Amino acid sequence: QVQLVESGGGSVQAGGSLRLSCAASGRTFSSSAMGWFRQAPGKEREFVAAISGSGSRTRYADSVKGRFTISRDNAKNTVYLQMNSLKPEDTAVYFCNADGIISSGSPYSMGDYWGQGTQVTVSS
C-alpha cells in the first residue's frame, strides 16, 4: 500500500524558514514527478512546486519563486520543500503528491497519491 507522510511543519515568524519532508513507502517514485500543494482554511488547494523524477526539472508557483526550493532524494524515496523568507500568506496545510507529470503545457499534473498534510503557520 502506498503511503506519503509529510513532516517538518510548524510555526515561525515572518522571514523565517522551514523544511518540509515527504517520505513515500509502498513503491518507488524515482521515475515520476512529485509535487507540493497547499490549502488555507476556506480556500482552494493550490499548486506550490514540482520536481521531475530525476530532479533535473523543477516548477514553482509565481508566489513562491525565489523563496522556496524543491528537491528529492530518490535513495530515500523522499521529496523536500525548503521554504525561506516565509510570509503570513504562506500559512496553510501543505500536501505532498506523487506520481505526477511535468510537461511544457502545465507545471505539474497531479498523480494519484497524497499525504495527510503538515501545518505551516507564519506570523507577522
Q: What would you say this structure looks like, in words?
A:
This protein has strands spanning 3-7, 10-13, 18-25, 33-39, 46-51, 58-60, 68-73, 78-83, 92-100, 113-114, 118-123. It has 124 residues and is mainly β. The strands form two sheets. Strands 2, 4, 5, 6, 9, 10 and 11 form a seven-stranded mixed sheet that branches. It has a four-stranded antiparallel sheet with strand order 1-3-8-7, with no helix packed on it. A hairpin with a 4-residue loop joins strand 7 (68-73) and strand 8 (78-83).
Shape: globular
Coarse structural class? mainly beta
- Biggest sheet descriptor: 7 strands, mixed
Number of strands: 11
Question: What does the secondary structure layout of this molecule look like, with pairings?
Answer:
Blueprint: E1 3-7, E2 10-13, E3 18-25, E4 33-39, E5 46-51, E6 58-60, E7 68-73, E8 78-83, E9 92-100, E10 113-114, E11 118-123
Parallel strand pairs: 2-11
Antiparallel strand pairs: 1-3, 3-8, 4-5, 4-9, 5-6, 7-8, 9-10, 9-11
Brief overview, please?
The chain has no helices and eleven strands. With 124 residues, it is mostly beta strands. The model has no long low-confidence stretch (mean pLDDT 97).
Structure keywords:
7-stranded mixed sheet, 4-stranded antiparallel sheet, single chain, 124 residues, mainly beta
